[in-house]
């Protein structure tokens, strides 16, 4: 089959410097790089790198960044025919300043991502009949994301939501459209309204999501692995141990890995292993899309990892 990612596409402008400037101050930077980003694009690359037929639906601007972003996605094997080139606005950008100690400041300009609307959902409808899973995030307007989920349900397509970033008012009606939800601890806490700092609270949060209509709950616990729950089973998945150097894109790799494995018809526990390994391997290199592993790397790790 194939999967669709409906979401954001950004160009990240990353400056490394020995320290961040104070208001009104100029400092000399040490290094500058442009990197393809956006949660939608990152998750699409993660799945495509694993050999999955992957469509991305979203928007870029009619600028040099848009052209560069599309070229990079195509090089990774992502089908970008569903990406609209919007001539009225710039591509989305993230301006990221990182000092030597790791502290950073980020300014995100949504650009074309903020213009995603029903017309983009209409393009999505043309692809949904040949798709097994639709992967969503929340870096584009919530109304468009909800409309995409409604469209997917009409075609019997599995809907997976990475609820990041969590909006101030997430509508309860949305939960019944979600088959799989994958928040991290912080995101889950915002959605359920209480801190998730022990096993009892994790179970309580999972129960709330299930009661609201979600079929599968996966809560990412960082260095502690992940927790998953359905109406019939629940358990912890230990982390895949690696030496991390950069955690950017790890969550996107986790989601892309799960989506790719489910498209292959693998059971949930195996799909979570795929996600855990892809997410972990992404942290062993700098960057997001360029750090995502391919299928051979994943398979080598599956052979040697006993959960």
Record the SSE blueprint.
Layout: E1 3-6, E2 10-17, E3 29-37, H1 39-49, E4 54-61, H2 64-75, E5 79-86, E6 92-99, E7 104-109, H3 118-125, E8 133-136, H4 142-154, E9 158-161, E10 180-181, H5 185-192, H6 199-211, E11 216-220, E12 226-229, E13 234-237, H7 250-263, H8 268-282, H9 295-304
Parallel strand pairs: 1-4, 1-8, 2-6, 4-5, 8-9, 9-10, 10-11
Antiparallel strand pairs: 2-3, 6-7, 11-12, 12-13
Structure description:
The chain is built from 9 helices and 13 strands. Helix 1 (39-49) crosses helix 7 and helix 7 runs antiparallel to helix 8. The protein has 307 residues and is α/β, with parallel strands linked by helices. The chain has one domain (3-9, 38-91, 112-304): Ribokinase (UDP-N-acetylmuramoyl-L-alanine:D-glutamate ligase), CATH 3.40.1190. The strands form 2 sheets. The protein has a 9-stranded mixed beta sheet with strand order 5-4-1-8-9-10-11-12-13, with helices on both faces. Strands 3-2-6-7 form a 4-stranded mixed beta sheet. The model has no long low-confidence stretch (mean pLDDT 93). The protein has helices at 39-49, 64-75, 118-125, 142-154, 185-192, 199-211, 250-263, 268-282, 295-304, and strands at residues 3-6, 10-17, 29-37, 54-61, 79-86, 92-99, 104-109, 133-136, 158-161, 180-181, 216-220, 226-229, 234-237.
CATH architecture grouping: 3-Layer(aba) Sandwich
Structural class from helices and strands? alpha/beta
The largest β sheet comes out as: 9 strands, mixed
CATH superfamily, called what?
Answer: Ribokinase
* CATH fold label: UDP-N-acetylmuramoyl-L-alanine:D-glutamate ligase
Number of helices: 9
The structural domain count equals 1
Radius of gyration based on Cα positions: 19 Å
Residue share in helix:
25-40%
At the first level of CATH, what is the class? Alpha Beta
Net shape? globular
The termini sit apart by 28 Å
In sequence order, what are the helices and strands, one letter per element?
Answer: EEEHEHEEEHEHEEHHEEEHHH
Low-confidence stretches: none
Beta-strand segment tally? 13
């Amino acid at each position: 089959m194939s999967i669709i990612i409906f979401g954001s596409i950004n160009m990240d402008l990353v400056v490394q410097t020995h320290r961040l400037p104070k208001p009104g101050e100029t400092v000399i930077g040490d290094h500058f790089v442009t990197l393809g980003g956006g949660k939608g694009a990152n998750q699409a690359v993660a799945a495509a790198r694993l050999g999955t037929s992957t469509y991305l639906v979203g928007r870029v601007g009619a600028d040099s960044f848009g052209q560069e972003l599309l070229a990079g996605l195509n090089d990774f094997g992502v089908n970008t025919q569903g990406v609209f080139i919007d001539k009225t606005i710039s591509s989305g950008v993230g301006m990221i300043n990182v000092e030597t100690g790791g502290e950073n400041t980020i300014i995100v300009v949504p650009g074309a991502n903020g213009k995603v609307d029903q017309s983009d959902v209409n393009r999505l409808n043309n692809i949904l009949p040949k798709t097994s899973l639709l992967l969503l995030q929340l870096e584009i307007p919530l109304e468009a994301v909800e409309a995409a989920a409604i469209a997917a349900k009409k075609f019997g397509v599995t809907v997976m939501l990475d609820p990041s970033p969590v909006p101030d008012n997430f509508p309860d009606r949305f939960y019944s459209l979600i088959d799989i939800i994958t928040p991290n601890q912080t995101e889950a806490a915002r959605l359920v309204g209480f801190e998730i700092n022990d096993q009892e609270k994790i179970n309580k949060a999972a129960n709330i999501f299930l009661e609201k209509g979600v079929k599968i709950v996966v809560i990412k616990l960082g260095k502690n692995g992940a927790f998953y729950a359905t109406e019939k089973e629940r358990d912890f998945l230990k982390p895949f141990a690696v030496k991390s150097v950069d955690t950017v894109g790890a969550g996107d790799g986790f989601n892309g890995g799960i989506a790719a494995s489910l498209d292959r018809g693998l059971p949930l526990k195996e799909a979570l292993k795929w996600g855990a390994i892809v997410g972990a391997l992404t942290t062993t290199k700098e960057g997001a899309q360029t750090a995502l592993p391919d299928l051979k790397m994943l398979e080598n790790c599956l052979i040697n990892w006993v959960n």
